[in-house]
Amino acid sequence: MPLAERTGPPAAAGSAPAPIHAGRAKKFGAAATRAAIPAVNGSLYAARTKIQPQSVRGTFRRIKWIVLAVALGVYYLTPFVRWPRGAGEPSQAVLLDLDKGRFYFFSIELWPQDVTYVMGLLILAALILFLMNAVAGRVWCGYLCPQTVWTDLFLAVERLVEGDRRARLRLDAAPWSMEKIALRTMKHSIWLLVAWWTGGAWVLYFADAPTLVVQLATFQAPAPAYVAILTLTATTYLLAGHMREQVCTYMCPWPRIQAALTDEHALNILYRNDRGEPRVSAKKTAALRAAGQPAGDCVDCFACVTACPAGIDIRDGLQMDCIQCGLCIDACDTVMGRLGRPAGLIGYDTEANCRSRAAGRGPVSRIVRPRTILYATLIAGVGGFMLYSLATRSFTTLSVLHDRNPQFVTLSDGSIRNGFTLRVLNKRPAERRFALAVDGVADARVEVVGGTPEDLPVPSNGTQEFRILIFSPPGRTAQTSDLSFAIADPASGETAHARDYFKAP
Predict the structure, then answer these.
(1) Which of 58, 199, 321, 390 could form a disulfide with 310 if both were Cys (CB 3.0 to 4.6 A apart)?
(2) What's the CA angle centered on 265, arms 260 and 269, to 5 degrees?
(3) Which residue numbers delimit the 4Fe-4S ferredoxin-type domain (predicted)?
(4) Can you tell me the distance from the alpha carbon of 314 to that of 334, in angstroms, rounded to the nearest whole number?
């Protein structure tokens, strides 16, 4: 699907640059708009001017506030949620313990050997993102992306301190004064405080949160914790406070990927040209319609443009910068309500619907189609497999390593001895004792150096290696054969198996 360019066509050689949306610039002033600079020497990038979006009220703005509150609440408060796991185990519900190599998520405990679950979660996340894009475009970007959430938070702080759009524009244009310095200092101080707590909350996922908070406050925390907080503070402050829409347009790869994953039946925020054009001021609409001349519902008020956090004009069509946040819908619906006109001039729609209306046909809706069925099937399959694997996974692992040199030893009585190293992994939070059984060599004798095959103790949440010697019967010709090792926990009945070879001449 072609995406509209942000910049206009290159200026002719020797001609003076002319900004796009000249009418908007004339009506609202140069400071109120982002005039795109035409391509110079083949450049495809527009000069960046600060965007000051207008606050709006409406359905989508309320949804964004709810998502912001829930997302930030989960992020900041989750490290303090407790989950009892028994003596000697961490009581933090969500914890990534790098020292022990454990990831705790409520009742689930993952070891480094369980990295396949992490890969499965990444695959699931990608498939869910693909499905969301196929159904409703960049709905992730507009509501759930961390960049969007924190940018909304920083914009809310900016409005609280400096006022809404017009007040901020006046402040930007005003000369430096004590009032301006005080407002800017307060805004950036709150921004830095939010960014600092964002970085601080992140490190709490890697250690016991209450303990680490006390250590940080008393300057007794490990040095990497302070480095991580400072790094995340700087990135949050820069990305959410200063770069904002530039992150979504230039740094994020998703705007370029999503064009290849969408189609004409995906919901996107679109302007209804058939209803809005031609654009006429509210005062002239009644007179033109009474005279039988066309007059669209769009009054060219630019409310959708000033409300857009990316500073684009949605009436120009689907654009790469648009994050599908819905604020332009709320702004337009508010204007339509004041004029007594029906809402929905801008709304979530599909290109197939637009073409159907233009041809005089009825609405077209194909949310369920091969693309969405495929994504949903893959999500259900991968998710179901992961849940089954997680529910049936073993908490005991057995691995066997055969001696390399020598691989076997011929003893004086004619028997053959093979040496092995058994490594037993116990994922339970209690010591367990296993019994060893070996099958593959008839009448073989099994010895455990420093112990007995009937009692192999393994510490809680740990591994233990055992030196195993297997002897073939004396006086009997031995040959290379398969060996089967099995350990069993008599208390729980849990078993683990491994295979290797018994080497012989």
Answers:
(1) 321
(2) 85
(3) 288-317
(4) 16
Phi, psi of 197 (to 5 degrees): -70, -30
Let me know whether 69 and 198 are in one domain.
yes
C-alpha count within 13 angstroms, C-beta hemisphere, residue 419: 11
* Residues 20-69 pLDDT 10s: 333 333 333 333 444 443 444 556 666 667 899 999 999 999 999 999 99
The answer to whether residues 145 and 40 belong to one domain is no
- Size (the chain), residues: 505
The sheet carrying 94-97 orders its strands as: 94-97, 102-105, 108-110
DSSP assigned state of 9: P
Contact present, 424 and 463 (Cβ < 8 Å)? yes
Determine the pLDDT at residue 195: 97
- CA–CA gap between residue 463 and residue 456 (Å, rounded): 11
DSSP state, 241? Answer: I
The domain boundary residue, chosen from 241, 259, 277? 259
Which amino acid is residue 102, in one-letter code?
R
Give the angle 364-1-265 at the CA atoms, nearest 5°. 20
Q: Are residues 16 and 76 in the same domain?
A: no
7: helix, coil or strand? coil
> Do the Cβ atoms of 7 and 44 come closer than 8 Å?
yes
Q: How many CB atoms lie within 10 A of CB 15?
A: 9
Class of residue 422 by CB neighbours under 10 A (exposed 0-12, middle 13-18, buried 19+): buried
Quick check: 496 and 398 in contact, CB under 8 A? yes
- From 224, 259, 294, the end of a domain falls on 259
SS3 call for 452: strand
Angle between helices 178-203 and 223-238 (to 10 degrees): 130
Average pLDDT, the chain: 87
pLDDT score of 289 more than 90: no
Residue 202 lies in a domain: yes
453/484 Cα distance (integer angstroms): 14
Q: Which domain holds residue 442?
A: 396-502
Query: In which residue are the tokens 């990444």 written?
Result: 122
Question: At 321, is the secondary structure helix, strand, or coil?
Answer: coil
CA distances 224 to 62, 200, 205, 221, 228, Å, are 39, 12, 14, 8, 6
- 390 belongs to a structural domain: no
Q: How many domains does the chain have?
A: 3
Using only the alpha carbons of the chain, give its radius of gyration: 33
Q: Which distant-in-sequence residues (6+ apart) come within 8 Å of 147 by Cβ? A: 239, 240, 247, 248, 252
CB 133 within 8 A of CB 261: yes
Residue 35 in contact with residue 21, Cβ under 8 Å? yes
Contact 310, 155 (CB under 8 A): no
Quickly state the pLDDT bin for 435 (edges 50, 70, 90): very high
Give the single-character DSSP code of 78. Answer: G
Q: Is residue 354 part of a domain?
A: no
What residues form DSSP beta bridges with 147?
none
**What pLDDT score does 263 carry?**
86
